[in-house]
Predict the structure.
Amino acid sequence: MKMTGSQIIMEILLEQGVDTVFGYPGGAALNIYDTLYQYSDRIRHVLTAHEQGAAHAADGYARATGKTGVVFATSGPGATNLVTGIATAFMDSIPMVAITSNVANSLIGRDAFQEVYITGITMPITKHNFFVNKVEDLAHAVREAFRIAATGRKGPVLVDVTKDVSAALCEFEPKEAEHQVKMPTASDEEIQKIADMINQAERPAIYCGGGVPASDAGHELQELIHKADIPIAYTMMAVGIVGYNDTHSLGMIGMHGSVAANKAVDQADLVLALGTRFSDRVALNTEKFAQRATKVQVDIDESEINKNVIVDMSVLSDVKYFLEKLLPLVEEKKRTAWLEQVAEWRNASIAAQCPAAKMHPRDIIGAVCDMTDKETIYVTDVGQHQMWAAQFIKHRNTKVFLTSGGLGTMGFGYGAAIGAQVGCPDKRVIHFTGDASFHMNLNEACTAVSEELPIITVIMNNHVLGMVYQWQSSFYDRRYSATVPNRKTDFVKLAEGFGAKSFRAETPEEFKEAFAAALQEKGPVWIECIIDQEEKVLPMIPNGGTVEDIILN
Amino acid sequence: MTEIKVNKDAPRQVVRMLVDNQPNVLARISSLFGRRNFNISTITASETHISGLTRITVVTGENDENVLHQIIAQTEKLEVVREIYLLDMKNSVYRELLLVKIRTDKNERSALHEIVDIYRGKIIDLSKNSMIVELTGSPEKLDGFMNMVSCYDIIEVCRTGITGIERGLAE
């Protein structure tokens, strides 16, 4: 059957089970958008205010649903505006397909209007990309993009299509979507060896990262820690992997992790690192990280083995497969002495939490968790509020905490929340942000209003660029360079201007009242919370430090 | 995990790969090396007897086992890379080509000719005041030759970088 390039794109989206795309049209994308109009009964297009918002939305959609997120953009600035969103997804291994339009093939390389070499620009931030200037190559490229994005360690793939290709006719053969997932798997010997190590260990600890939720291994992991009595520390990418109140949970590890998590990994005799990469925000001192332990790393990506921290044993495997096979080989055991020691650190961590200010972020986050159900999806931006959210959200479920971990993208939150709410219309989506992060992408309020998305945005307004301000306060002798912007933004009026609801809260009581009202709204709501600018994210281990250097207050 | 056998005494490590012959393939490899801060001493690329596949040979000054493992594992993740490994230097032959243009007058010509002969090079162009010498061999041989002619007036030097291949057939 003969079809245009644009039709081929739509047909392959349907073939891949895509029913939602995020994007922004433009000159080079006219053919694609014209065809989208004809497919609008089967493919929902969510128009954002800015392409960056669309990229973050596709990312948030993927994180919340587990499906591959899709974003469309036009050539030139449309494509470059995706870059931060693509890089964000790349760093956090989120499956995404970006389809950009480019100028007609006859104009390529001539600095045509809105021409940019987007495949060159995105080479280091995609798993792979395609430049399609022949319509015959299009179907293969788009199918490959979906395959690559969702295979192995997931990530973004970009397909750049010239304008003439989107109009050109070509024979098209429908195909079933490939659902091959050939993952590397640990050998029986390797698994037995690790089981033996666990059975013999006196003070084992698990340190897990984004690979665990990515392979949907939360259930197996919980079984393991309870069966073998192993405490577990998680990175920010795995927040929610274990219940907040689980006695085996040590909390988050790393720079702003808990005393218990950092202490336990430091003192353990065996550390099992699952789906994680010993990043510089976790292994702050690569020489001394888990220095007393035999370190075992299980990861799907060989290049993560020995990249940052040299381990004693490594296994290339999908984590879920590994845990399923490991479970029957691990002895049911009580490690009372070790768990008592861990409990002591846990209690010390909680006691070390500073006394409540008039309006402490912990109380705001606590109130939100108390007033929402366990399916609630929490999305953050980047900075102090993000760390508080990672520390204090009382998560009870995986895939509920969407945050820009690797790239640390301020402005990620609103777009990602939109994507999550579009993908999960029946779930409550809460967006935690700071005043500085929110200023970066709050323009997406118009999208939330147009699409009637009941996202509740909780703005922790301390009137400064909080995290940088905190570092300047601690390490730069309070020279607050460019972190006190003296902004006069009236968030309540601004929300009204967008057609959204808004509240302002200065006390926990006011906040609870506002939040209760927000829960009744059908569209987006902002709640501005005034917090103290001197409030710090603690504990903190400085760069290069160990748990011995932890700053508690 | 891929075992990397590094001969620490070798002055260089040679990474051989087979990649899809498509536009941008060299850019993808060099972009990766650039962003990961891996050193490239030389890089060569050419088509092979298999249609659609290109051979790329990268010589790197890195000889730390973990860095070399990173080079192999990161490069292997690129969609275009079909095969990649570290060349076992003891069991391989490797060559480089040198072209050098030297200013010569009639008094210097025969002495230079003698050096070129000793190194089994060829004079492939001769003019009244210059000659171009072609030489193939190991990089050490080429270095040795360059050292011998360094007292002459060197106008231009081109070296291709190493390419190499293992001896015999894999069992």
Summary: The longest strand of chain B covers residues 92-103. Chain B has two domains: 13-90, 92-166.
